[in-house]
Design a protein that fits this description.
Largest sheet: 6 strands, parallel
Structural class: alpha/beta
Strand order of the largest sheet: 2-3-4-1-5-6
Distance between the termini: 33 Å
Order of helices and strands: HHEHEHHEHEHEHHHHHHEH
Number of helices: 14
Strand content: 5-15%
Shape: globular
C-alpha cells in the first residue's frame, strides 16, 4: 500500500522513476517512447531498496510480483530452471507489472557456486527472457554486495540503470523520521525544530529501518508507561539502544561504496548540494 510518498530521501531515484512511469501511457506509446526494462538497486540492508521496489508499482498503478531466488532452488536436476521459466512466464502474462527480484546476488553470481551449474542455467534463463520479453515487465533487482554479480546481468540494454542506495544523510534521516512519526500519529514536542535536529544528529549512521524501529520502540515504552504521548526523550532513549549497522559493516561498506561510485548512479543528491539548494531558495 506504500507509494513513493512513503520513501524518505532518494530524490534523484524518485525523479527518475517518475519519468519512466510516464512511458506506459497511451500517449507515450503513440509517440514511440520505449517501455523501460528495469533497474538494479544496490546497497546495504535496511536502506530502502525493498520499500522502493514495492512503491514503484503502486506509484505506477501496476501489480508488483516478488520472486524469491531462494525459493526457486530445488535439489532435483532441472527443477530450479523450470521454476524460473514458469515464474517469468507468469510475469509476462500479467504485464504491465513490476517484477521484484530481491537479493539477486544470492541466486546468481560470477563466482563458483558449487551447485552443478544450476545457478548458471538459471542465470541464462533470466538473461534470455530479459533480452526477448517486450510485454512491459519492469524488473527491479536488489543486491547487497554487487561485486560478484555477472556483468552480463547488469549491462546497459538489459537494465536501464544501476542505483546505489546508501545510508541516509541528515536531510534524509529527517524525512524518514517525519514519515514514521506521522504513521505512528505522534503528537508532542517532537516536532519542534530543535528536537528534530537533535534526534537527526543522534541517529547519524542509522538506516531507514533502524530509524523506524526507534519510533516503534518508543511507542512500546510509552504505551506501557501510561499510555502517554511519545516525546523527544523517549526517542533519544530508543536511539541510544541501537548500534547502527553502518558501524558494524566497516571495511565491507567502504568497499561497496567505492565500487558504486565507479559503477552506479547515486540515488540521493549529496548532502552538501542539498544544503546549497536550500540556501538558494
Amino acid at each position: 500500500t506504500d507509494g513513493m510518498s512513503s520513501v524518505g530521501g532518494l530524490d534523484v531515484l524518485i525523479d527518475w522513476v517518475g519519468k519512466r512511469g510516464k512511458a506506459y501511457s497511451d500517449e507515450a506509446q503513440k509517440w514511440g517512447v520505449p517501455k523501460p526494462k528495469g533497474m538494479l538497486l544496490l546497497g546495504m540492508p535496511g536502506c530502502g531498496k525493498t520499500l522502493v521496489g514495492r512503491a514503484v508499482g503502486n506509484a505506477w498503478g501496476v501489480p508488483v510480483l516478488t520472486m524469491e531466488m531462494g525459493s526457486m532452488m530445488n535439489k532435483y536436476v532441472g527443477e530450479s530452471e523450470g521454476r524460473m521459466r514458469e515464474a517469468l512466464k507468469t510475469a509476462s502474462a500479467i504485464a504491465p507489472c513490476v517484477l521484484f527480484i530481491d537479493e539477486v546476488d544470492k541466486g546468481v553470481s560470477s563466482g563458483e557456486s558449487g551447485d552443478s551449474g544450476t545457478s548458471s542455467r538459471m542465470l541464462q534463463n533470466l538473461l534470455t527472457w530479459m533480452n526477448d520479453d517486450d510485454s512491459g515487465v519492469f524488473v527491479i533487482m536488489t543486491a547487497n554486495d554487487p561485486r560478484n554479480l555477472p556483468q552480463e546481468l547488469t549491462r546497459a540494454g538489459r537494465l536501464d540503470a544501476r542505483w546505489y542506495v546508501g545510508f541516509p544523510n541528515a536531510e534524509e534521516r529527517e524525512q524518514i523520521l517525519m514519515i514514521h512519526l506521522k504513521k505512528a500519529r505522534v503528537d508532542s514536542d517532537v516536532y519542534e525544530t530543535s528536537s528534530i535536529e537533535e534526534l537527526v544528529e543522534k541517529m547519524n549512521g542509522f538506516s531507514g529501518s533502524e530509524i523506524e524501529q526507534c519510533v516503534k520502540n518508543a511507542m512500546y515504552d510509552c504505551f506501557d508507561d501510561g499510555p502517554r504521548p511519545v516525546g523527544k526523550a523517549d526517542l533519544l532513549f530508543a536511539a541510544h539502544g541501537v548500534y547502527p549497522m553502518s558501524a558494524e559493516l566497516g571495511e565491507r561498506l567502504k568497499a561497496v561504496e567505492k565500487w558504486a561510485k565507479k559503477n552506479a548512479r547515486m540515488a540521493s543528491t549529496p548532502s552538501s548540494v542539498s544544503r546549497s539548494r536550500r540556501r538558494a531558495v
